[in-house]
Amino acid sequence: MLEELKYQVYEANMKLPEYGLVTFTWGNVSGIDKEREYFVIKPSGVDYDKLSPEDMVVMDLEGNKVEGKWNPSSDTATHIELYKASRDIGGIVHTHSTWATSWAQSGRSIPCYGTTHADYMYGEIPCVRCLTREEIEDEYERNTGRLIVEYFKGKDYLAMPAVLCKDHGPFTWGKDAKEAVHNAVVLEEVAKMAANCELINRKVQPAPQELLDKHYFRKHGENAYYGQKRS
Amino acid sequence: MLEELKYQVYEANMKLPEYGLVTFTWGNVSGIDKEREYFVIKPSGVDYDKLSPEDMVVMDLEGNKVEGKWNPSSDTATHIELYKASRDIGGIVHTHSTWATSWAQSGRSIPCYGTTHADYMYGEIPCVRCLTREEIEDEYERNTGRLIVEYFKGKDYLAMPAVLCKDHGPFTWGKDAKEAVHNAVVLEEVAKMAANCELINRKVQPAPQELLDKHYFRKHGENAYYGQKRS
Amino acid sequence: MLEELKYQVYEANMKLPEYGLVTFTWGNVSGIDKEREYFVIKPSGVDYDKLSPEDMVVMDLEGNKVEGKWNPSSDTATHIELYKASRDIGGIVHTHSTWATSWAQSGRSIPCYGTTHADYMYGEIPCVRCLTREEIEDEYERNTGRLIVEYFKGKDYLAMPAVLCKDHGPFTWGKDAKEAVHNAVVLEEVAKMAANCELINRKVQPAPQELLDKHYFRKHGENAYYGQKRS
Amino acid sequence: MLEELKYQVYEANMKLPEYGLVTFTWGNVSGIDKEREYFVIKPSGVDYDKLSPEDMVVMDLEGNKVEGKWNPSSDTATHIELYKASRDIGGIVHTHSTWATSWAQSGRSIPCYGTTHADYMYGEIPCVRCLTREEIEDEYERNTGRLIVEYFKGKDYLAMPAVLCKDHGPFTWGKDAKEAVHNAVVLEEVAKMAANCELINRKVQPAPQELLDKHYFRKHGENAYYGQKRS
């Protein structure tokens, strides 16, 4: 079942080592089908160089395994909370990529210092608080998802397709698994440049709002003119 | 038309990922023909690994597309302002390369800390101000070009073939597209070493003028003696 | 003799350059046999690209060479002290990997700033003191081992499979040579992210104990649920 | 003439891009023959990927070209001063490698923070002053060599096979061209780790003298026991 989605999710997972975003098995990608009944996710702890499309695990949104020989990623419950919270999210990525994780560990949101950031993410990339002892001890992964969803209540997931979980690492998403991986790459590059930028000028201020608006809307929304869509 | 120039500009574009200066499609190279009637530029948002010489777009200096199936780079208007400002400029590069962009985001010009810098760029690499709200909202890319041209009024473009645009990133140029890419590589390396250098010694001072003169004129002008040109 | 172990130790050694953990011959891996009578270690100063399984040196725990045409690694005496101290240790790695060595040189233990660290190492990664003049001048490598063993007295080697030796570099270990190399890779990544993290937020605090417990026990012990072991 | 030496110097030059020590043509290696009459050096400004053994230039110690179709490296006069100063030097390397150059630009000598450094270089790696205006304007490259030689008067070139020239970059040497390249690689790694180390602990102190002695003499001199030489 869902052979095409499995293949897409497999391919998206394989992009993580290709872009240098994962060490060992420290990452996972999922994608949801159009009816939003089932989603497909990487199996837990399986090496990328041994992965094949058939290893992908099919799950429902109640957390039941529908098909697959492996256990799903240990972060599956986080993915479920995000899929349930927004129909805009078609794919989700979790990594421990170096610079995004360094920001997450530092407990700081990433200010928007320039157009590389503004082209994809509108405003500062939020770092949500660490979970409480109770939230950690019971349903840890699900509570991670709930905390993200709580932060995004009333916000546009596609205008800010990334979040940092304090003391842990980043999640990104997009309209499908491929776009979620694209955003994970952007996040890592933006995180690295923001740290460099503060190193070069400790008093640096975020870019002005009008520049953020310009770059974001150059690529998003009905007046977008970047790329080939309108030609 | 302009098949040779298209091929040169294509090859120069392909050097950007080879030298690690671009992620995804975050860069573009153009080159102008000898009569300076038409220039050739990368299409907007097309992946480097799918690019071919025939994808290059031919434009005139009024911003009209002369030939090509794709939209030109969204930064085309910036390129035009530069070509119109100086006949010395035969090729132009824009990237979001990591360290040059980090300096641009920080809003600081890059001091000349040594001979690696002085061999190619005479003096500090300027960071021009962020555009005003009005300049951003209307003709953003063209105003970016105008701001650069305003800064370089009365200056020698080939003695300083690079500029940083605050909150955005670098542009470099040269006598042709290939040399513009060469300067983009130099800029990235110089930007990285300048940041490292300040990290190692927070009170570091720029190199003395006589050293800058020596290295720059060892490679440029009629008394140059680096390389094989005079043998 | 011990052909299978030699091959395992050879393969583990070859992972060091593959993961970018060694320059030239600055690293060595050993593994001990099940009876814990003999262990196999890389020869001293032999290039990785010329290494073969037959080059591995078989040693006993008194430091006598049992088989092999080469001298064993100059750090052999350190490996012996560790093997003698704990039957949990089946393989040992020493490297001069960039970030772990930078922390070792700085004389600081690596605080646990997040779950990447907590997934493998329980608490801060200790940096043991520099040896005294007497300890250095006589039996230097053996005293390095003794100092590590002294620190770990009463502690669980597998809960903290890494140590930094001040002014020198890291040692890691595991249930076999392969796992010891795995931990060397984790250590390098964790060391890099901890330095980044302090750069981004100079006042960063270690992750809370409950998060460390959660991640460590998600992967270790009888209630572990990461990966495929329980499926 | 000197076909074997040309080949060795060619091979040593090709190691510079392989180890990531040069961008474009920013480096050169030379080696001297046993009679110390002639030395062989890379031609100036020739791309590494077009270099062949026959391109090497044969020079005498008065700076006359003895054989070769190209101009020798523009740094030839610096190499000559070093060869004339010490018969211990059989090969010389100049690069603009990132971290060594960053230290050179910062004007600081590299303190010895650990055993990676101590294994190859005895004590802090000196940064010599910038040349005066007069020294720069006339015989710049030769004066660079003279300044290094002045610093090393009465010192052992092989105990400290590296120097940083302020605002410029490093030179390294060794008993032949291959060893000089080896030392250039060591220098770059040591320079990177020293900067990291100061970042992690701003109050870090150099390693104690007894540790430096131990590691240096473990590899050098008649009591050396690292590697296979004595087996």
Automatic annotation (TrEMBL), chains A, B, C, D:
Q: Which InterPro entries match?
A: Aldolase_class_II_sugar_metab, Aldolase_II/adducin_N, Aldolase_II/adducin_N_sf
Q: Could you tell me the superkingdom of the organism this chain comes from?
A: Bacteria
Cellular component annotations (GO), alphabetically ordered: cytosol
Q: List, in alphabetical order, the Gene Ontology terms for molecular function in this entry.
A: aldehyde-lyase activity; L-ribulose-phosphate 4-epimerase activity; metal ion binding
Q: In which pathway does it act?
A: Carbohydrate degradation; L-arabinose degradation via L-ribulose; D-xylulose 5-phosphate from L-arabinose (bacterial route): step 3/3
UniProt KW Transferase keyword: no
Q: Which GO terms describe its biological process?
A: arabinose catabolic process
Known EC number(s)?
A: 5.1.3.4
Broad EC category: isomerase
Function summary = Involved in the degradation of L-arabinose. Catalyzes the interconversion of L-ribulose 5-phosphate (LRu5P) and D-xylulose 5-phosphate (D-Xu5P) via a retroaldol/aldol mechanism (carbon-carbon bond cleavage analogous to a class II aldolase reaction).
Similarity annotation: Belongs to the aldolase class II family. AraD/FucA subfamily.
Name recorded for this polypeptide? L-ribulose-5-phosphate 4-epimerase
